[in-house]
Fold this sequence. Notes:
Blueprint: E1 2-7, H1 8-16, H2 20-30, H3 38-55, E2 65-71, E3 78-86, E4 91-99, E5 105-106, E6 112-117, E7 120-125, H4 127-141, H5 143-147, E8 151-158, H6 166-169, H7 175-180, E9 183-185, H8 189-200, H9 208-214, H10 223-231, H11 242-257, E10 263-270, H12 276-289, E11 294-298, H13 301-312, H14 318-324, E12 325-327, E13 339-344, H15 364-371, E14 372-379, H16 393-402, E15 405-408, E16 414-415, H17 425-434, E17 450-454, H18 457-467, E18 473-477, E19 494-495, E20 501-504, E21 520-522, H19 524-527, E22 532-539, E23 543-546, E24 549-552, H20 571-586, E25 589-597, H21 600-618
Parallel strand pairs: 4-8, 8-9, 10-14, 10-15, 10-16, 11-12, 11-13, 13-14, 17-25, 18-21, 18-22, 20-21, 22-25
Antiparallel strand pairs: 1-2, 2-3, 3-4, 5-6, 6-7, 19-20, 23-24
Helix pairs in contact: 1-3, 2-3, 10-12, 10-13, 11-12
Amino acid sequence: MIVYSGTKRTFQNDVVNGRIAREIDSLFRQMGIGRESIQEFNSWKNSLPQMAVIMSDERIDKDVKIAIEYQIPLTSKRVDFMVGGNDGERDNIVIIELKQWESCKATSRENVVIAFTGGAEREVAHPSQQAYSYAKLIENFNEDVRNENINLIPCAFLHNYDEKDRKQICNPKYNEAIEDAPIFLREDGTKLQDFLVQYVNKPSNKKLFEIIEYGKLKPSKSLQDSIGSIMNGNKEFEMIDEQQVAYATVLKLVENSINNDEKHTIIVQGGAGTGKSVIAINLLSKIINNSYSAVYATKTVAPRYAFSTSLIKGKHKLTYLKGLFKSSGSFVDVPNNTFDCILCDEAHRLKEKSGMYSNLGENQIKEIINASKISVFFIDEDQIVTTKDIGSIKEIIKWAHQLGSIVHFNNSLILKSQFRCNGSDGYIAFLDNLLEIRETANYTFDLDYDIRVFDDPNEMREELRKTNINNKSRMIAGYCYPWNSEKDKTQYDIFLENGFKAQWNFTTEKFASDPDSFDQVGCIHSTQGLEFEYVGVIIGKDLRYENGRVITDRTQRAKSDASVKGIKGNEALGDKIIRNTYKTLLSRGQKGCFIYCEDKALRDYLKTMLDKAKQKSYC
């Protein structure tokens, strides 16, 4: 989605007449996108006139195209400024990351600097890395960019940056990033003009920004499909902004701590779809390719199976894989500092005891920290979904201190950007409001995200089937139905109105990949940690709308459901588990989420909430 577009001439007119910031703000509102803050409005007032000066170069044709605030598909990331044109031979789009920084400090971490932003000094991605990653994201998502032979040229412009601090932002350790995306400071205006003239001095005969805006999207990449390539050292996913900070922080700690006895514990916090697993797998690949010992650990079976199965198709042997992907209960008797690094994904799902009968070990958090020099916990406390889940930031910090491990947890290790649900942070806020997990003031979301509420479960299934082109759509449900088919595969488990019937997934491990799984229904245990293009969510009677509130009812859970076992006496935990379960299920879809509620009142309430969100979007 491009918020503002026009020619060089119209852009400069809007700047000269002092209306550019108001024009963009108005377009945001018309498109149903809320700007982040007054600081964002001020950034347009301050940065765009600087770009108008750069664009005043007469060597750049007045009909060269300009685009501002382009939201990259399937992400919450926006490109600040783009110039589209032709260099006499080829069509090019220059992507410009704009920063108002006056200075920054170099760090020893890969493509990470410290800059004053958002009212404080923060560890952030180097602007060149940021611009380059945005270009790669667009290239990866938009098939027509490649087919139309459009060249994407990233760069960064820090128009307030003080020359005396050039050695920080242009430190030799950032040379590779700067080579990929040149950086221009306050005194480099002429150089930036020359750069633009080199690539976009003439208008293109093609409608470049329509191709960017409406081009055919490639099938979305999921982590489970790309893991083999990642483990072979290929870059399937660019680290974006705070992802880069978390990634580089862990890498540097591993490198620094390998030859000493220090222990470090890093906590990376992020909601569903913020890229926790992507970071973990990229770190696993990088660390073992640097000849250090590392393993990926998670309590959740489904991602372990999906990741290892994907690798088996490649060059890796099964025995090798078993050593890389471990259950979180595998470290009961492992000696101190056996591994250089343990990457614990889905850390909110950790348990105290391990083993089939929960009779082994003392505490999985303690055992993971003990077994590694560097322990990394990727966590989202809103995805605690059983009474046995003990993973929390507080608990991790407690055990780290007891074991003498230095804790690293700060704002730079909190992932905020959304890479699922069509990149809509607003949709996640909408779910928090709907499920009464927390009240959020703004829950408008990108209406390109395909969310539909169905009165007939059969209709939902058939509409979902139409989206299952790449075997990436699945039905999932709350655990409200007995598992009759567990012992008799001819039996059905889920019976709903209008004759709908379905079975639970036959295997947790293969549900996400087996084409025969489409007509089955997955539960939280077969889908947590994975993503799909579209999901169809069946909300059972454990979530209802009564007397103006969304309420939970654990008595409506199936008797075979162990997630609320032993909950009596702690109704607040039972309530939290049910709400977290549905938030997790409702945020599995990259492109869309179809919903059927057994409770008609909840169904009607959800429709009303969606209508309000749409009305807010159009205000």
